[in-house]
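dumping the sequnces here before i forget
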Amino acid sequence: MKNRLINFARKYPIVFILAVCIIFFSASSPVFLSSQNLTNILLQVSIIGIISIGMTLILINANIDLSVGSILAFSAALAMGLQTYGLFFSIIACLAVGTLIGALNGFLVAKAKINSFIVTLGAMMGVRGLVYIYTQERPIVGTERALIDFGSSSVGPIPVIALIFVLMLIAAELVLRYTTHGRNAIAVGGNYEAAENAGIKVERHVLFNFMFIGFTAALAGLLLVSRTNSATAFLGTNYELMVISAVVLGGTKLTGGYGSMLNTFGGVLVIGMIQNGMNLLNVHAYYSMLIMGLILILVVFIDTRFKAPVNI
Amino acid sequence: MKKRTLALLLAGLLVLSLAFTGCGAPEPDAPPADEAEPVDVDPDAFLIGITQNNVGIDSYQTTYDRAFREAVESRADVEGIILDAAGDVMRQINQVEDLMAQGVDVIIIWPVDGTAIVPAVEKAQAEGFPVVITNSPIDESGYEFIVGFSGPDNIIQGRYAAEMMIDALDGEGKVVEIMGLPGYVTAHQRSDGFHEVITDATGIEVLETQPGDWNREKSQQVMENFLLKYDEIDGVYAADDNMAVGAINAIKEAGRMDAIKVTSACMFGDGYDAMLRGELHGSVEQSPIVDATNALEMALAVARGEEVDFWYYFETPKVIVEEVENFEKPVF
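..and the predicted 3d for all of it:
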């Protein structure tokens, strides 16, 4: 029993950390396990969570995308600023522009063979520049009440934004496990040349994943402004770090070839629970950053040092 | 190998628990902070939650945070949940939700973004939580969802700057105005207050108003343009000391410091120094400590069910160049 528990913790460190978080916070705060608070946590992680879905695919491919925070900000600003041309137009434009920036990143990585860290670092700065130009550093306020009504609505007890996140996550897990695209993702990340030799259209595959993460960042931006009805130039700052932390916490490797959406969900939840728990316990924001950093390093350490051989 | 794994996991747990106990949950008998005398908290104490804008970003906000914590610790009738949104509007919205989940009596918000917070404030009101806004007003569309605003009266600050300008110029002359970032209530109110007084005064003419966006470099450029455009300028009104210092830089470069009086509506440390050098004629003191205690007082009055004014202002005295040494230099 004890050995099985240890083995399990070695195989899925994120589940273990998640359990520790739940036990600790529920013991420290009577509010933590209340249904309202659990709903809050799910809602609060949805924005980061949706981008994490795209990031999991990118990391499985052994790439990285640092531009998601900037794409989120630009899409959010467009979603607000273009509402004068109609709500439908602004939503389509917001999502299309995010996907397009992703396509540009993907093209430079897949076709021009530039390292994804460099490409997306450039995009992170360049797109943030566009945000400043477009917003003139002033908040852009929405005019359409419908978007904010949508953002604050619920299906039964579940906020609609959280529902979108969970449904996307399930769909992505199914794609990863049961479709050619999912298996190719792991093959490409495991060994790029072998995947190419095996006839996988690697360039197209990588391009698609960058378009997809661009889309998820834009969708996250859209859902964010559906809660605030206002976009500023600073939105999404540091979100790329939060997203990458969540995915890596979940056990996806930066070296590629391994990862799962459910584990990413675990990573996202841990980050959300720590932030929420710190608020409940009245702990200063500085400490929550410190603790998140420590946990991240701890998990990766356990993972690389003591990872049980995968025998599925 | 297995033992080491176990040891490592335990070590991780230890790190976690240490970190938590180290920074302390809001227990009534928490160890005392350096200055304030801690008081045992009444079991019927009010629970006040605050989400601040960005505590580490400047000394004003850091001093406010410290003053608020000390004020809470020194009182028996209040327990506080003191949070920091770290400049992220999404995090602030999440914190408002977390405060609601804990059933606080009053929520105090120092808005990161006065427009983006409106939907969250609307939700809080709908669920029966009174909201007090501190330091910077939110967008007018949110007024119907809040109990009121605790902070400086920006209109009075603008009026004070105008009165000091009238004294400096003996009621006669031509002035230019550098206002804050358009679209922000503070910027417009400080401008409105100034114009309320200046129109009453005989002989003072406002040549032109331009935004300096609270930014020193921008204000310097705006002032450079004014100096080129107008041969006679007797006074400059800037909505805060940061912009006033930018304007002073431009005036000194043009060699016209002797002919021009500068007043401002909010004193910063750099403005205090400029006043010691005689370059800034007058400004207005705004204390972060009074700002914090005023917000707590208002929240407690709301929690006790008392009637409070929607605009719950605190005093912001005039500071003129002759009396500057009677005031402490602002930490920000």
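The longest strand of chain A covers residues 140-141.
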